[in-house]
C-alpha cells in the first residue's frame, strides 16, 4: 500500500514509518523543513513537502495515496483552540479528497478527558462535539464520512506514549522536577494515566491500517492506568530528589502547561482493540522504562 503519513518525522511517526516499511508498505512522508525531509529520505521515505496550513499540499498527498495516516498536530497549548481549528480543517480536507474511494484514513486522537474517573473504552464517545471540542471535534467530523466512501479510523493514543527519545509529557514533567527540586504529583496522586510504548503504538497503527473497519476507534493503550504518585516517586528516585503532593490550585505554576494534564484521572482500556487487531502490547511498561534511566540522561 502507498501510505501518506503526516507527522512522519515526529515522535510517534518516527516509529510508525519503519513499522510500515518493514511490512512492505511504501511510505510518503509530509515534511515541513529541510531537516525533516533529509531524515525521512535517509529512512527510504518519499518526501512530500508541506505543512498543516498548506491544505493543497495535503490534498495532493492524499489524492496520490492508497491510505493516509494523519499523526501531525500543532502542539501549541497556548492556543489549543487554534490547534483544534487547524486539525478540523486538515481532516475535512483529507476526507473530502478521499470521498468515494473507500480508502483508509487513520487519524490521531486521544483517550484523555473522555470520561474522567472512569475506564474509557473504544465504545465511549467524546462528550464535547463540534468545532470547539478537543482536536476540533475530529472524530465526529471524520466518522460522518463513513457513508461517503471513506474508511476513517480514530487512533486514540494513551496520555503518555513513552520510549527512548520521548520529548512529550513525561519529559516535561521530569524537567519540572529538575527545575523545582521536587518531583510532584497533584493532590493525593491517585489519579491514573494510561500508557503505551511507542513501538507498541506503531504496531497497532500498522495493524489498524490493514484491518480496522470504517468508523472504528482503536486504543493505543498498553497499561490501563498508572497512579501519578507512582510516576512521580520513580522520577524522584532517579533524580535523587523528594516527591510530594502539589495542591491542585498550584499545578500550573509547579508543572507549567502540563500540570492540567497531570491532574487528570483518565484510565483507558484497549481490550476491544486487542481483540479486533490481534494486537498485544509486548514492550516495557512506563515504570520499567523510567527505571531504565534513559529519560534522565542529558
TrEMBL record:
Residues 3-213 form the NAD-dependent epimerase/dehydratase domain. GO terms for cellular component: cytoplasm. SUPFAM superfamilies: NAD(P)-binding Rossmann-fold domains. GO terms for molecular function: aldehyde dehydrogenase (NAD+) activity. It holds the Pfam family Epimerase. This is NAD-dependent epimerase/dehydratase domain-containing protein. It comes from Gordonia namibiensis NBRC 108229.
Amino acid at each position: 500500500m502507498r501510505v501518506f503519513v503526516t507527522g512522519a518525522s515526529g515522535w510517534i511517526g518516527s516509529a510508525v514509518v519503519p513499522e510500515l516499511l518493514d511490512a512492505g508498505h511504501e511510505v510518503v512522508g509530509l515534511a515541513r523543513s529541510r531537516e525533516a525531509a533529509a531524515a525521512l529520505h535517509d529512512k527510504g521515505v518519499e518526501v512530500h513537502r508541506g505543512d498543516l496550513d498548506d491544505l493543497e499540499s495535503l490534498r495532493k498527498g492524499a489524492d496520490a495515496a492508497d491510505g493516509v495516516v494523519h499523526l501531525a498536530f500543532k502542539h501549541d497549548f497556548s492556543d489549543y483552540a487554534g490547534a483544534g481549528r487547524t486539525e478540523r480543517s486538515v481532516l475535512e480536507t483529507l476526507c473530502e479528497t478521499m470521498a468515494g474511494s473507500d480508502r483508509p484514513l487513520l487519524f490521531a486522537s486521544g483517550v484523555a478527558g473522555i470520561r474522567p474517573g472512569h475506564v474509557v473504552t473504544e465504545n465511549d464517545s467524546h462528550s464535547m462535539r463540534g468545532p470547539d471540542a478537543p482536536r476540533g471535534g475530529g472524530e465526529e467530523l471524520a466518522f460522518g464520512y463513513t457513508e461517503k466512501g471513506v474508511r476513517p479510523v480514530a487512533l486514540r493514543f494513551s496520555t503518555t506514549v513513552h520510549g527512548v527519545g520521548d520529548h512529550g509529557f513525561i519529559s516535561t514533567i521530569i524537567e519540572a522536577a529538575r527545575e523545582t527540586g521536587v518531583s510532584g504529583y497533584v493532590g493525593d496522586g491517585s489519579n491514573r494515566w494510561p500508557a503505551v510504548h511507542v513501538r507498541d503504538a506503531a504496531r497497532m497503527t500498522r495493524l489498524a491500517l490493514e484491518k480496522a473497519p470504517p468508523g472504528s476507534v482503536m486504543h493505543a493503550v498498553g497499561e490501563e492506568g498508572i497512579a501519578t504518585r507512582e510516576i512521580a516517586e520513580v522520577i524522584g528516585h532517579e533524580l535523587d530528589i523528594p516527591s510530594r503532593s502539589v495542591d491542585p490550585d498550584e499545578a500550573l505554576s509547579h508543572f507549567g502547561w502540563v500540570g492540567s494534564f497531570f491532574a487528570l484521572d483518565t484510565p483507558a482500556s484497549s481490550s476491544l482493540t486487542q481483540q479486533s487487531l490481534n494486537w498485544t502490547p509486548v514492550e516495557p511498561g512506563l515504570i520499567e522504562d523510567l527505571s531504565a534511566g534513559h529519560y534522565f540522561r542529558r
